[in-house]
Amino acid sequence: MTEEMSERLLTEAAARVTWGEPAETVVEFLTGNGMDYGEAARVVNQLVHERNAEVRARSMRRLGLGIAALLAAAIFFAFLPWQEWYESLNKHRRRRRSGPGDWMIIGVICLGIAGLWQAWRGIWGLITPQAEELSDVE
To answer: How many domains does the chain have?
Structure first.
């Protein structure tokens, strides 16, 4: 096997592992293209280990962002005198339209929901890194 062909196979294997293809399938791909089974299994195990580490790192970031967003929403609703603030923002309203206070509360609720979603994705990625989709788009 030439150096160029070996490099192409390793790049293809890395791409397959990154996108979540099962390790057995990637080993079969490498052995089908002329690589020794032992070496193919070793390379794929290393690639899977690197992928799982990357997924866990991204999951920890998601979990941190989710917790921060949830805490921000909780602090807004629990500790700030938001009822007086809300009424003062909406005191100039004459009709039954949304005021700035309504939009602020809706925004904080959306922040809490987004934080809950990110925290869940972070926890799920930590528990099952092999099932998590890994892309460079994020």
So the answer is: 1
Flag whether 136 is in a domain: no
Band (112; pLDDT cuts 50, 70, 90): very high
Q: Which domain holds residue 75?
A: 3-131
Q: Any residues with CB less than 8 A from the CB of 35 and at least 6 apart, and which? A: 1, 6, 9, 43
> Is the whole model's pTM more than 0.85, yes or no?
no
- Give the integer Cα–Cα distance in Å for 102 and 87: 10
Tens digit of pLDDT for each residue in 1-35? 567 778 888 999 999 988 888 889 999 999 998 88
Q: Is residue 138 part of a domain?
A: no
